[in-house]
Amino acid sequence: MAKANCKSPKVLSRGRIEALIAKGRTIVISDNRVLCLDGWLDEHPGGLLPVQHMVGRDATDQIAIYHDIEVTKSMERWQIGTIDEEWVDFEPPISGGKFRSSPSACDQENEDTTPAITKETMEIQKGANVKVQTKADVVRSETGQRADAAQKAEQEEIELDAAKYPSVDVQTQREITYKFRQLHRRVREEGLYMCHYINYFKEACRYTSLFAGFAVALHFDWYLTAACFLGLFWHQIMFTAHDAGHLAITHNYVIDTLIGLFVADFCCGLSLGWWKSSHNVHHLVPNHPEHDPDIQNVPLFATSSTSISPTFSTYYQRTLEWDAFAEVAIQVQKFTYYPVMCVARFKLYALSWEYLLSSKAVRIGSVYWVRPTEVLFMAIYWYLFGYCLVWCTLPTWPIRVAFVLLSHMITMPLHVQITLSHWGMSTADLGPSESFAQKQLRTTMDVDCPAWLDWIHGGLQFQAVHHLFPRVPRHNLRKVQTLIRGFSAETGIKYTTYGFVDGNKVVLSRLNEVAKQLDVLAKCSVHMMNHGDGHGH
């Protein structure tokens, strides 16, 4: 009987699950089911990294909010067992978690009950191992002062968050998780996942009006006026690309993806695939210095004390080096913030093509048609915008340069809006026991504005709400906000909101704070050089 149970386990112990992860299996817990997702990695449209960040964890909430019920049910085919106890999350391998492998006969005989580990999984695991080794090498190679200062500042932020938010002990976080699932159930029951398409008809009318303004101005040779209208068109229509990228319009993958590709790639020249590959990771590990690509902006910006020393990025799979340029740029980052946001769109062009030409875009499994569609749409965009408009229609080089710069600078508020909700919030990691809901509310702020201004912010002012329920159509987010205020009061998790002006002040304050930390380190280094003393600073 013991051997039979070994071959076909119905209940897997924590030790067995740990051993499977140690052997490279992609094990995720969902609704007390043990899922081995090695075979799903090649099919997952959201990419490898979101799954890798859930290894060894109870991902019930993450799976529920990112997928519809049909997809959730279809994941039963990857089930290899169940658990019969309250699960305590492991730190995933990609975050440096260590797992013990059990060589028992039972484990050996069950080796063929799980899908073979994929090449991509091994590459991600290799990256995680490199990260751990790189951090250790960095600490050993530094004089110790910079690393110590970064660790001290990080610890202070952890202690500050621990005092402001509910305890991350297992029982407290389980209660929060239970209440969040009740909240999610209520969001579904009140029909807040339903999209009212009349809202998108109104959106389409606004987009059409802006594009018509561009066309009319261009016809009468009002080139700079045309540039303003084109920039406003880009600014507004990208809100719909964001909705489509989260499947928040029709909740149908093919339809929403095609909408997103038309808007992002064809109309704006930006890769929806690139955006989703980074944005999905950002949603799962928001504001984590080593994992969230949205805050990995060295050498231009640093919003975390951790960033003042070399940091390994699990998204880019390389070390973000700290060089002489960063030493200068970070100290003046509060002054360069808005100028850089004015030209941020040019970087997005580069990241889009870099993604489409990389292995990340090639390895797209069941959605093989997305990449060639993106390449086609972006090629058409650059033919129409770069060749037909800028080169053939605009008469002189000064006008061409002014047109391109002005049209792109007009989109600056969108880039400010995107960074506003996170750059001023905590970057501390409170450990794997922190619940999904608390993590999102602790690292994300909302922007308070009257309802009649919602169209300007495009739903991005409800970032905290959106992070908790990313597939809720943005026109329903204000209604969900009311529910989250109640959830916040019930759980004791602070729901952070600022007005737009105050939110900007918070971000500038954070940028200035990190710059001051760097300035203190620079002064200490000068003192050490002059006095040969590395102590007491």
Structure description:
This protein has 537 residues and is mainly α. The protein is 59% helix and 4% strand. Helix 13 packs across helix 16. The longest helix has 32 residues, at 500-531. It starts with a helix and ends in a 6-residue tail after the last helix.
Features:
537 residues, mainly alpha, Flavocytochrome B2, Chain A, domain 1, two-stranded antiparallel ribbon, 25 helices, globular
Structure class: mainly alpha
- CATH-scheme architecture of the domain at 2-99 and 117-124: Roll
> How many distinct beta strands?
7
Physical arrangement of strands within the biggest beta sheet: 1-2-3
CATH C-level label of the domain at 2-99 and 117-124: Alpha Beta
| Range of strand content | under 5%
- End-to-end span in angstroms? 66 Å
Sequence stretches where pLDDT stays below 50 over 5 or more residues? 1-8, 105-143
Global shape: globular
Average pLDDT number: 86
**Helical region count?**
25
Report on the biggest sheet: 3 strands, antiparallel
Task: Give a topology summary.
Layout: H1 2-7, H2 14-22, E1 27-30, E2 33-36, H3 49-52, H4 60-66, H5 69-74, E3 79-82, H6 105-109, H7 119-141, H8 145-164, H9 170-189, H10 198-219, H11 223-245, H12 253-268, H13 272-284, E4 311-313, E5 318-320, H14 324-329, H15 333-342, H16 344-356, H17 359-362, H18 370-391, H19 397-409, H20 412-423, H21 436-443, E6 446-448, H22 454-457, H23 463-468, H24 477-491, E7 497-499, H25 500-531
Parallel strand pairs: 6-7
Antiparallel strand pairs: 1-2, 2-3, 4-5
Helix pairs in contact: 9-24, 10-11, 11-12, 11-19, 12-18, 13-16, 20-25
